[in-house]
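Table 4 source record.
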Amino acid sequence: MTDTERKRLFDSILNDYGNMVAKVCYMYGTNDEQRKDLYQECMANVWQGLKGFKGESKLSTWLYRACINTCITCYRHNRRHDDTLSIDEAQTVSQSEDNRVQNLEEMYRLISRLNSIEKALIMMWLDEKSYDEISEVTGMRRNTVASRLKRIKDKLIKLGNS
């Protein structure tokens, strides 16, 4: 891949998949600053990784894997994961008049309490990835993906009810 092709592909990723990358970062970051740092780290790794991208898998699958791996690596490196909302974030949620925003915040808060693999699986499911696509990204068998997602959903329900 030439530098020009790489730049075009990267620009396309920014335009077409920037929100997906931001969503992955949102799940692993505990505050806006951390999420911005994760986003930059993901994009830096994507830029570097494009040199070796051969197109053997779908671009979105490759991108998911790259971003999730980046976020998990950063998470493990920092080990300062806080599964609660800050006072400022909690105040923002409580002042919001939009139920949709409140529900999303609650969902993200609950998902933030999951382990790294569970977060990755549920995020891909929420993005309407098929079990086969999730299997390709994670390296898990399709049936394993299905059973893990069922357990994760049950766990989220329990967390939400407690």
